Amino acid sequence: MLAELDSMEQEAISELATVADAAALEAFRVRWLGANGRLRAAMDALKTVPKDQKPAVGKRVNEVKAAIEGVFNARKDAFAAVPKGPLVDVTEPGLPMGEGARHVVAKTIDGIVEVLGRMGFSVADGPELEDEWHNFNALNIPESHPARGPADNFFLGGEVAGKLLLRTQTSTVQIRAMETMKPPLKICAIGRVYRPDAHDATHYSMFHQVEGLYIDRHVSMVDLKTTLVQFAKAFFGPEAEVRLRPSFFPFTEPSAELDMKMKIIRNGKPEWKWIELGGCGMVDPNVFRAVGIDPEEWTGFAFGLGIERVAMRKYGIGDIRLLFENDARFLRQFA
Ligand code: DAH
Questions:
Q1: From atom 13 of ligand 1, which residue's Cα is the shortest distance away?
Q2: Each residue of 245-273: pLDDT tens digit?
Q3: Domain with 270 in it: what CATH number?
Q4: Which of 152, 249, 252 to mutate to test the pocket of ligand 1 (most atoms within 8 A of CB)?
Q5: What's the gap in Å between 321 CA and the centre of ligand 1?
């Protein structure tokens, strides 16, 4: 009888290990622990055991019963822990998680900063909320200049705000850099600028510019053009070219409009085209005077380019609004 109890215990416990669901567990309970179950039968069989063996066999029956019930209860608790409701098949592949990626404008900025960094420009920064001194006066844009009117600028309302505005150009950072650093200096600045333009395919009230400023002794227009040519070749490819057209900006003299020959995607095909990218020139002596740099000793060049323009031409994007609508289906193409 003792040997029989040992094998019963083993059988019951290995059967419990294969029980896969609540229904099978209930069937097990009826078969082993129920009123007509095998444990009951073992207890009944105790009666037929010779008297002298009864205590040992009785003890063993109780042990076997406790062991089986212990494992049974553990399985029962495990099934109870499975949450109710629709069952989840964890072997299903599941829904794809939307994967993030760099925005096409951020990617363009990364590329520009990378190239300028290799050319020796360190990155400078300035606030988007500016005062009139940094956005206009110090840049030789006089009080009477039409570009300073309320129709062309986002001035902050209210008396406390005074004459603060969202900067219209990153040229503000030229002034901030010259106020805090001594020449020679070579910096670039990347940032958002704001203009109250109606939104259409080529205009947006916020966009990004990259500004460059190099100040040293004997800097000339040749240095400016060489820098821009090298930048164009490194950024757009060896076939890229640079063209300067005479222009006017209050903060440079002489000033030029900057065109670059760049590879653009049109109807899915690459093509080389002249694209207007921004302005440049030799730093006006009045700008140097505004920040206390001696224009007799120091010379410099500056340039400012529109980043969206570069991104749109480079990637064949026909509408600037697409860049700021944040439609993942559009942006994913450039990931
Ligand atoms: N700030 C000018 C603009 O937003 C662009 C520009 C022109 C920047 C000439 C410069 C420069 O640094 O030298 O239209």
A1: 280
A2: 999 999 999 999 999 888 888 888 888 88
A3: 3.30.930.10
A4: 249
A5: 23
Crossing angle of helices 54-81 and 38-45, rounded to 10°: 170
Tell me, what's the pLDDT at 159?
Answer: 61
Residues 301, 164: one domain? yes
Q: Are residues 171 and 288 in the same domain?
A: yes
- Which ligand 1 atom sits nearest the alpha carbon of residue 209? 4
Together in a domain, 203 and 145: yes
Among 18-22, 121-125, 289-293, the least confident range:
18-22
Residues 115 and 251 reside in one and the same domain: yes
Q: Are residues 164 and 69 in the same domain?
A: no
| Ligand 1 and 284: CB distance under 6 A | no
pLDDT digits over 104-157, tens only? 999 999 999 999 999 999 999 999 999 999 999 999 999 999 999 999 999 997
Determine the atom of ligand 1 nearest the C-alpha atom of 169. Answer: 4
SS (HEC) of 112-140: HHHHHHHCCCEEECCCCEEEHHHHCHHHC
Judgement on whether residues 189 and 66 belong to the same structural domain of the protein: no
171 lines ligand 1 (CB under 6 A): yes
246 lies in which domain range? Answer: 104-334
What atom of ligand 1 comes closest to residue 301's alpha carbon? Answer: 13
Question: Terminus-to-terminus CA distance in the chain, angstroms?
Answer: 74
The domain total for the chain is 2
- Cβ-Cβ contacts under 8 Å for 140 (sequence gap 6 or more): 250, 251, 284, 286, 287, 290
pTM for this model (two decimals): 0.72
72 and 113 fall within a common domain: no
Sign of CA dihedral 112, 276, 141, 293: positive
The percent of residues above 70 in pLDDT, for the chain, comes to 98
Within a domain: 89? no
Question: Quick one: 63 and 168 in the same domain?
Answer: no
